[in-house]
Amino acid sequence: MAADYREGVVFATLQMLKDVLARAGATATTPVRLEVGAELMNSVVYTPERWEQLLAAAKKERHRLGLDGKV
Length: 71
Hints:
Layout: H1 3-24, H2 41-46, H3 48-64
Helix pairs in contact: 1-3
């Protein structure tokens, strides 16, 4: 799990979604789906433990940003 990918792509995307949902306010009633690492399919085969670490980090950041149930 490269820090640049985790923080620069996944965490930055979660922060952007937080900002967008805040601007949308009450009109944002449907959760947003975020595909994490779809381009990293080889990592699922060759280094599944790193994939699990990335997913856990994304879920933790989603929670920290208050996006549970929204993303």
